[in-house]
Amino acid sequence: MIKILEMIGFGLVAIMILSFVGALQSIGIPMGASNPYFWGCAGGTLIIIMYRKRKRKQANQE
């Protein structure tokens, strides 16, 4: 499960970076930090990071 989350996280970060620099404009994704794809990917990545941190903390307490 953790490996799958890592792969999803890497994909989200890649989409976030590409949408920020404007590499995805040819398929209709706008450039910059004001587009919803950038913030959606950033939020998804943050949720994955927080989930993994909570799981590690729970594993260390047991």
User: Largest sheet, described in full?
Assistant: none
Low-pLDDT residue intervals, each spanning 5 or more residues: none
The computed structural class is mainly alpha
Gross geometry: elongated
In which range does the helix fraction lie? Answer: over 70%
N-to-C order of helices and strands: HH
Number of helical regions? 2
From the N-terminal CA to the C-terminal CA, the straight-line distance is 19 Å
Number of strands: 0
Strand content: under 5%
Instruction: Return the average pLDDT rounded to an integer.
Output: 88
Calculate Rg over CA atoms: 14 Å
List the helices and strands and how they pair.
Blueprint: H1 2-21, H2 36-61
Helix pairs in contact: 1-2
Question: Which key phrases capture this entry?
Answer:
62 residues; mainly alpha
Description:
- It contains two helices and no strands.
- The protein is elongated.
- The protein has helices at 2-21, 36-61.
- Helix content is 74%, strand content 0%.
- It has 62 residues and is mainly alpha-helical.
How is this structure best summarized?
It is built from 2 helices and no strands. It has 62 residues and is mainly α. The two termini are 19 Å apart.
